[in-house]
Batch of 2 targets.
Target 1
Amino acid sequence: MTELPMTHDVLTERAPAKRSVNFITVLAALILASMALIFGLGLRHQQQTQPTEGMAPLFTLQTLDGQEIALEALRGQVVVINFWASWCGPCRDEAAELEAAWQQYKDKDVIFLGIAYTDTERNAQAYLKEFGITYPNGLDYKTKISAQYRITGVPETFIVDRQGHISEFVMTPLKRVQLSAMIERALAKGTQP
Amino acid sequence: MNRLLKIGVMLLCLAIALSAVTLSAFAQDDPRRPVTDDEVNAVSKKLYCPVCENITLDTCGTLACAQWREEVRILLSEGKTPEQVIENFVMRFGDRVVGTPADPTLRALALITPWLLSALVLLATGAVFLRWRKERPAAAPSAPEAKAATSVRTFAEYRARIEADLAARR
């Protein structure tokens, strides 16, 4: 005599576990989505480049001699924003050139702003003293300004025209002649805003 | 000669006393303490290079990292605790020095996702455990009970089958 196959209602016995399984699926989907978002945002962040046109991001620089300079208050002047660091070799190559250009343009509606990226005050001061730099310089507190300008290294220089638009951007050490030409182009763009 | 020797000894004693006073005064003025490389490295391990990607200060060979390590040494020598040094760096250079993403959305997600992941693992473990607890009595009943239940069901089914066969023959 053969034994009859036993029927077993699997579905009815497993029914209570269904809700927890569903909840876990939702949670897993949520995690996958957030991981995808992290990856996507990271990728987007990597692909973001320095602004080369449009309005220059606004900031207020606390200079090493205690002044506060707001970019917005400099409308009507051409602004040369130079990101540098005392530990950066190429920055040393351009330091004297920048100071020479500043001496040439400081009375011609042009202002230079030096922003020390991830630098300590002691080292930044020593650097400025070493190269005899006289234009306003300040530390990039919490690296907020460099994040706004999405710099990828130092030195990087932005020329902002009288209307507050980014006129030019250079990510190599500058020579005085090159910088002068850029400033002249920005000056030629217009007089008052 | 003897007198000269006495004067010499006196002058020497005076010089020693003066230098001791000067040195002790200097030591009181400078509250810095010597900091070992190990102490600097212990803090540097928790800080990231401002230039390179995902490299901590203690292993980075750039000048930027060398300067930051020196800054760590100075802060430690001024009596700051490692936690205070890290806090000081975060205050000055932002969250990125401790490896937190600069993008606010990315930072929020990076903070939330590990917790979500942990919750998922915990829930999955809990669900598996509960299911296992529920299924155990049904799937693996005690041996005599299972045998009895099976034999009752089998007998009833055999009987029904025999009755059906007999009915068909009639």
Target 2
Amino acid sequence: MALSHAALGELGDARPAAGAAELERRAARVRWGLLAPSLVILLFAAIGPLFIVLVYSFLTPGPYGGVVWSPSLEGWFRVLFQRDIFDDSLKFQDAHLSILWRSVKLSFATTMLALVVGFPTAYFIATRPERSRTSWLFLITIPFWTNLLIRTFAIQEVIRNEGLINAALLQLGLIARPLQLMFTDGAILAGMLYVFLPLMVLPLYASMEKLDFRLIEAGYDLYANRFQVLRRVIIPLVKPGIIAGSILVFIPTLGAYVTPRVLGGGKNMMLGNLIELQFGQGRNWPLGSALSMTLLAIVMVALLVYVRFAAKSDTTGHG
Amino acid sequence: MDAPVGTSPAIEVERVSKIFGSGEDEVLALDDVSVAIRKNEFFTLLGPSGCGKTTLLRLIAGFEHPTRGRILLEGSDISPLPPYRRPVNTVFQNYALFPHLTVAGNIAFGLEMLGRPRPEIDQTVQTMLALVKMRELKNRRTSQISGGQQQRVALARALAPRPKVLLLDEPLSALDLKLRKEMQIELKRLQHETGITFVFVTHDQEEALTMSDRIAVMSGGRILQIGSPRDIYDHPAERFVANFIGDTNFLEAEWLGTSNGTGTVRLSSGAVVAASPPAGSTPSGKVTIVVRPEHAELTPDVASAPLRGIVENVVYFGTDTHYHVALPEGREFIVRRQNRRGSAAGFGPGTPAGIVFADAAAQILRD
């Protein structure tokens, strides 16, 4: 702010001789000045490392991890294929494909569930009196107060064989043996839903808060029942929130690492775990890098498809 | 169409009370209100903000439900029905147009919800667009049209399902003066052409007087008087009504009785003048009478006038001039005189003047 104020002052003081070109140049300097801090961080913390990862994916793995500076397509090749140890014949890398599929499936399911659970929550908060909304939002952010790892272990305490749920069910005599809840896709799903739900609720709330509730009355007045008001009035109007929330949940779940690691165990890997494996035990940094870039590509394609789809369904007005 | 105002009621509000909140915060928004609105009538609920007029409208629409009493639509009780089951549509104060739909999409909304076949919907939308003269803009977003145009779309959207009653909640208050005048005429035209009962809520007395078949003046959650605009203006029954609608002079007087079919009262000056008693009650003893400024005239013949005083202020308004006359008992009496070109104001400040009333100009209040 201080920067822009100073600059605005400067604009105001500009002598007539300065001319339009000079003013425009100063305005541009202000714009870049405002952007500079974020740009620097992005450059050094995101774009730079990403470039390094991209370069690594085209190199040869070192014997003890790391890379050897000799170009190779092997990393990318092994994202989808594996060589037979004996005759060098090519086979599809089934494990990678199934991990990829599970990741997409679980992320999609988490996003949909978060939407179904988060929508009523956001609506509830948005319809509270203005004074109490802040407290409700505050409650939504409570999960963020503790470390993700601790929260995930806490879930483990609830769902493991000797955990709360099984103990209670056994005590009630509803089951004879503990249910296997840990190390299942369901456990990962529940864990990720819990972790990422606030990221769905907050953008949904932001667009519902702006919703003009008189439009809902107008819907009722024009013979729309509750369901029709939801479908024809509320959902179209809060669509920006739905899109933002879905993106905010889908992307981090696709690359989720901690939750599937703790709740899914070694068997139910997701992409994040597979990548980690290559940089750790696997000692195949080029493959890990290629997998990372693949994840990035999937996210970008998914985003493009989703935004295109959302834009299309937006034009339901009648001609 | 131009159907005459019917005699059978479209809406009957029967002893309706509405309480908001509970305990300490309890607010009595409507206090035992009864009114019958006739078919094809332009009926106005007039009153200051907080008088309960919007609450009554929302009760008819179904957004609120009465605490006591019931509401009948063409004879059947609609009080328990949700808004989407009532053949009643609303034009909202801020229009409440759907921003995600086009002009035509907004107008079609109600018909779609009613499950009408597509050809019929398209046909009706065309008719409505023509009715409100919005044909060219049917594919625009509602954010791309002006306030006056939004108003027309809101009207078309509410009229498209052909409701039995159209409710209008201060629909003109957001428009500038010129547009408001245009829309007043437009609304009257639409009401005539569609033959639909209009219930109009406003705090603007001029709007109420120019547009309505009948007006209900409301205050403090009660209906004080129902009548034609002329009735309400010429024969206000209560001080509030007289005060709220138009400018008024209040005078203390003593009821003398009826002679030759008209009432007479004695003013504090001792003069005896004709005065109409309020409908449905007989006055006695001390009464308050009201005289509209334009129903009185100044005369230089001070001695024989029923009221005398000294002109204190002369305010020129273009169309007419207001003379503020100080009466001996300290009251002020305002006389309005229409201006004509070339006629000089006869009574400057400081001149003594007599005040005479036109025949039957004085109205006795009920209180």
